[in-house]
Amino acid sequence: MESYALLLAATLNAGTVLAIAALGLLVNEKAGIVNLGAEGMMLCAALAGFATVVHTGSDALGFVAGAAAGALLAAVFGLLVIWLNTNQYATGLALSLFGAGFSAFAGTGYVQAKLPERAQFSIPVLGDLPLVGPALFRQHPMVYAAIALALGLVWFLYRSRAGLVLRSVGESPESAHALGYPVRRIRLLAVVAGGALCGLAGAYLAVIYTPLWVEGMVAGRGWIALALTTFATWRPARVLLGAYLFGGVTMLQFHLQGAGVEVASQFLTMLPYVATIVVLALISRNPAWIRVNMPASLGKPFHPGS
Description:
- With 306 residues, the chain is mainly α.
- The protein has a single domain (2-293), classed as ABC transporter involved in vitamin B12 uptake, BtuC (Orthogonal Bundle), CATH 1.10.3470.
- The chain is built from 14 helices and no strands.
- The N and C termini lie far apart (63 Å).
- It comes from Ramlibacter tataouinensis (strain ATCC BAA-407 / DSM 14655 / LMG 21543 / TTB310).
């Protein structure tokens, strides 16, 4: 039973990275913008967060640096696709490639760097409970922040006026513009906020989850987070559940190896990506269901006055 409690704890930890990044991409897509640069933003943010903690010893400053790096790259992406009307898909891919190359170049001096001793977190009383204590109540605060973020987004998108405006921009930017809303500025704010969350996920990966810096350490999580938004049909609560599902698949490989299961390590390593492909293939069997939930202007440029 103890091994299952540890597996659950590891699942929550691994799923947090995906959840924060996917919720950021969800905000982008609710405004009608597709950002394929999540992988690159997370890599640059991971480096920024890790380097900041190495030099300052502060995890909080590391998270701020990661979020700022993600927001800055997202702002550049937003200016290109929203104001200069570049292709969203090509620009996102370029951002992803840039982030991978830049982080590899700038991070060479941090490969062997060590972070200060990590603090152990536990909720008083609850953390001492047998089985559920280690599984649920000894997590880093960012794990609980991801859950709160998902719940907060549910309220924001479906219960607040600002969320209604954001969704209207994603559904029909022409109508929102006709009503006097600054569509391009709203889209840019959504892109920057989404980039900051992707950056926060990258910083959490490098500072807490690993904690270390190596080239390409995001290892496809940005792409999985992007797939999660479709998997969850653009609903924050489903994004959270999907993130834990993929986090569980990721950690299952280590659990099986530790249990002595005779399976090739290469097969276990590819499990999260196989799961992503299978889930997307199953969802794609019903295109009408996707169209009902997908923001109507997703990926489409908007030209005021055209």
